[in-house]
Amino acid sequence: MKKLPTTHRIALLFNANKIYDRGIITGIGNYLSSTRASWDLFLEEDFRCRLPGIERWHGDGIIADFDDPAVCEALSGSRLPVVAVGGSYQDEADYPQHIPYVATDNFKLIKLAYDHLIEAGLTRFACFSLPEAPVNRWAQERERAFQRLMQRDGMAAEIYRGVSTSAPAWDTAVEQQIAWLHSLPKPIGIIAVSDARARQLLQACLSAGIAVPEQVALIGIDNDPLARTLTRVPLSSVIQGTEEMGRTAAHLLHQMLHGVQLGGSCILVPPIGINVLASSQHEPLSHPHVMQALHFIRQYACQGIKTEQVADYVGVSRSSLESYFRRELGRSVHDEILRFKLDAAKTILEHETRSIAEIAVSCGFTSVQYMHAVFKRELGCTPREYQERAAQASLQAVKQLQS
Question: Residue ranges of the chain with pLDDT lower than 50?
C-alpha cells in the first residue's frame, strides 16, 4: 500500500474579518490544494480572542500575522516552526529575529499609487494615515514610503493621521477630515493607507461638497469589495499580492516541517496592480459648472438621472451645460452619464456573479435590452461575453503569477 502523507496540525493566526488576512488565508489554501501537503488547519474568525495560551498549543506549526505586537510577544518563545507574515520595514532591525518573514512591500504599494496619480495629471499630493500606535506600524511604514517619494521629488510631505474611528468620536473625526480637506490646495491626489481609510475620506468629501476626482483624486490600498459597495463614487485601490504571500508562507512552513532550516530570511511580495475606478480618474478641468456636474453624475448616475436633473443641480440651463460639456470634454451630459453607468456595469461583471438583469437595474439601465445594446455599440460584445473575457483574463493573470 502507498503510504499516506503525514497530517500536520497548523494554526493560522489571522483576523479572518479583514480582506488582507482573507487573501493570505486563500493563498495558503491554494498552496495546499496544489501540493501533497496534508494539514489540519486551526483558524478563528479573529485569532486575538484566542491568543492567550497559544504557546501551550500542541500542534506542528504556525503561520501568523506579525503586524500585531501581541502576536510577536506571544510567539517569541514558541518551540514550533513559525512563519511570520506582515508589512515590510525600512529598518531591517524591525523584522523578527530568526523567523522567516513574508512581507507586503509597503514602499511599492505607495509608489504604485503615487505613480498612478502622477499619470492622472496631478502635481500635488497628500497621505491619509492612521494615528501612531504599535498596531498601526504598517500604516506608519506607508507614511515613511510617502515621505521618501516626496523628498525624492522635492515636495513637502502632507500627511494627516486624524483620529481612530469609534462611535463617540465619529462626528468629530469627520469634521476634522473636512477641515483638513478644505485646507489643501486643489486639485490634489490623496493616497489613503487602506481602503477603509479611503472610504472615510471619500464620505467626508461628499459631505463637504468636494468634487471627487476633479478636486480630490483618491486611491486606497486593499481592493476591498466592501469599500466599493459602500461608496457612491467607486473607489480606486492598489491590489496587494496577498494570495502570493499566503502561498509563499505555506511553502516556507512546508519546508520547515520537513527539516529545512530557514532562519530569519525575508521575502518581499510586490503589489499586483491597481483597480482604477472613478475616485482617481482625474481629468484637468477649468469650468466650475462641469466640475459640479461630474460630481453629481458620479454619485447618482446609477440611479437613473437625466440631463435635466444634472442641470438643475448645477443651476444652469440644459443648453448651457451641454455647451460647457462639449467644450471641456468633447461629449454630451448624456454621454457622460452613460459612460459612468457602463463603467459601473463592467466593474460588477469583472468582480461579481450577479445576473445580467440585476446588474442592469443596479447600474441604472432602463432594461436589460438597453444595457445589451450599449455594450454591443461601445465594446463590441454582450455583457455576458464581456464577463467571460474578464474571467479568462483574470485566470491568465493568476497563472502568470504562479509560474
Answer: 1
